[in-house]
Amino acid sequence: MKYYITTPIFYPNSSPHIGTAYTTVAADVLARYHRLLGDDVYFLTGTDENAQKIVRTAEAHNTDPKIYVDGVVERFKELWRALNISNDDFIRTTEERHQDVVQEIFTKLFEQGDIYKSEYSGWYCTPCETFWMENKLVEGKCPNSDCGRDVELLKEESYFFRLSKYQGALLKFIEDHPEFIQPISRRNEMLRFIEGGLEDLCVSRTTFQWGIKVPFDPKHVVYVWLDALINYISALGYPDGENYKRYWPADVHIMGKDIVRFHAVIWPIILLALDIPLPKVIYGHGWYLSKEGGKISKSRGNVQDSFELIQRYGSDAIRYFLLREMQVGSDGTYSEDNVVERLNSDLANDLGNFVSRSLAMVVKYRKGIVPRTGQEGALERELKELSREIKNTVEKSLEVLDPARALEEIWRFVARCNKYVDETAPWSLAKHEDQKERLDTVLYTFVECIRVMAVLTAPFMPGLAPRICALLGKDEGLIRWQEADQWGILEHGIQVQKGEPLFPRIDISQFTTAEETKTLDLNQNQNLDLNLSQTQAPKETIESVPALEFEPIKEEISIDDFAKLDLRVAKILSAEKVEKTDKLMKLEVEVAGEVRTVVSGIAKHYLPEDLVNRYVVLVANLKPTKLRGITSQGMILAASQGEVLEVLMVTKDLPGGARVK
Ligand code: ME8
Fold this sequence. Notes:
Elements: E1 2-10, H1 18-36, E2 40-47, H2 52-60, H3 65-82, E3 89-92, H4 96-111, E4 115-125, E5 130-132, E6 152-161, H5 167-176, E7 181-182, H6 184-195, E8 201-202, E9 204-205, E10 221-222, H7 224-229, H8 231-234, H9 242-247, E11 252-256, H10 260-274, E12 282-285, E13 288-290, H11 306-313, H12 315-325, E14 332-334, H13 336-366, H14 378-399, H15 403-424, H16 426-429, H17 436-457, H18 464-471, H19 531-535, H20 539-544, H21 559-563, E15 567-577, E16 585-591, E17 594-600, H22 608-611, E18 615-619, E19 625-627, E20 630-632, E21 635-636, E22 638-641, E23 644-647, E24 649-650, E25 659-660
Parallel strand pairs: 1-2, 1-11, 2-3, 7-12, 11-12, 13-14
Antiparallel strand pairs: 4-5, 4-6, 6-8, 9-10, 15-16, 15-18, 15-25, 16-17, 18-21, 18-24, 19-20, 22-23
Helix pairs in contact: 2-3, 5-6, 11-12, 12-13, 12-15, 13-15, 13-17, 14-15, 14-17, 15-17, 17-18
């Protein structure tokens, strides 16, 4: 069976955050699950780059929109890598393969009379990229519940798309396909909205030039939503690409509730007009809200650096939290305290503890060699029965796109396994020679329970399964979905090891504030490269990244050699990308009363506005050097491993010029 799943394509006007990440993680779970089922999966994500707000943001940064989005798109790709997202493609709407299809479709719709020229007179909300008629505004502002910002009056020649013509056909389709818009609350909302009457949609702009040109009237650029929705087929090579023939229609378009309206109205009407089959399911999940209640969003300023969170708690723990806390049809609440709570209770106490406790017993009582099972008793039969029931409910929950419920079920199994340890009390069995066979059965059941947990959690926490397999002396070939309720899969005689805790408990007090964790105290931590990981991140973070290759540690130096380095705190006054390079950022920094220029290779990892007014560590007595014609007077310190890079920042009250030693 083929399975095509998509996320929205995100606006790269600012770096992705934990709210944005939810949708992509949820889609990833479904993609991974379907791959485990043996389906032929295609998983698409990408970026929506032709928006007016991109032009505005780039202008505010004194840079060209393309240069600006190139930088932010890298941040998206980096985050998806850090979160172990298994997308098959990443589409950017500035790519030719997309633009060609949009132009072809626009022309076709125009030629068949579904697009016509007229004049738009009304309001526009740039942050939401939405047209509004006067009577829809709330106190003159954008009526979107999470927006409420100023709108602008537009009066311009525009092309219009005849949504009204397709209202009846769309309503009929939704009525005939009860599964089309999910969950049911969103379906009802959409039905009410469409029944209220659809107006033709303005689908071109003339007041800026960034975007895809209307091919037969190039002073117009295509309205960003018409352009963006088409990504779902342009990425497949519509109209005659192999992937299009193989994967369309989409099995699921997953998104936040804010944009269901565009997907449930404009998108199906484009497809109806083109006589293309409609997607099977449009699923709108809730939002992650901050503890204070507002939606997590960059514009509200309540976002936390996702890279920092992943570094601290590990990708699997962040994925687990996001998936577990968002219930179908409702919003979820995000706070770092809640992440730690989930990590400590569900991951460290429940799952992690079961695995280490039971493997420790195999090591202690059988030198790590898994014994042959003896006669099974009522407790083992109960566990088997439960695994069948749970595999079944997990499958049903994922069919209805409810990963939170699936995880709840899996944790019911984990809880039952922990109870099994207490009920069987292997430590007592070990004291009696005549209980040897019973102890063998219990220990064998332990390792089978661990295997079942690895299989069931594999779509949710892709870093975990390989780590568990390694403890069992196996590779990932052990992860076979069909065997999540089969027993007797592991052969006796295999050697297991206890290993390190899978999820060490976290003491939240060590992260008093998000900022403080970045504080660098070189007095205590000599190894700059691993500073953050070694002192603050749980060990799991380091181990969960498979086969890290570290640079070898350099030859010893004396304290006198070290003392030659003059490291200082420096305040970043301004930051801008060096033109025509991907990597270089030019910084003006204040250090000990002077202003210096420093060129640093961090532009792929930071936006200029993320750096200004931050305090960094400068090698202040490095001989100046010229980079791209700019004299760089020093070097700022950053930790990096593979694709991830973090500039070391100082957050306590230390002025530019303070010594770092
Ligand atoms: O709307 N909680 O892009 P966008 C949960 N480019 N999900 C959240 C979230 C939160 N706090 N904040 C964002 C666009 N999201 C268009 C889409 S598709 C053809 C074009 C997620 O960058 C959620 O999926 O504003 C939401 O729908 C999406 O990010 C909006 O991303």
